Amino acid sequence: MIDLTLDARRGSFHLQLACRFAAEWTVIFGPSGSGKTTLLRLLAGLDRPQVGRIVLDGRPLTDSPSRIFLRPGSRCIAMVSQQPSLFPHLGIAANVAYGLGSLDRKSRPARVEEMLDLVDARHLVDRRPLHLSGGEAQRVALARALAPRPRLLLLDEPFSALDGAASDALLARLQAWTAANGTQTVLATHDATDALATGAEVALLKEGRLTALGPATEVLAAERGRLQTRLG
Question: What does the buried/exposed string (b/e) look like for 150-178 if buried means 16 or more CB atoms within 10 Å of the residue's CB?
Answer without folding.
Answer: bbbbbbbbbbbbbeeeebbebbeebbebb
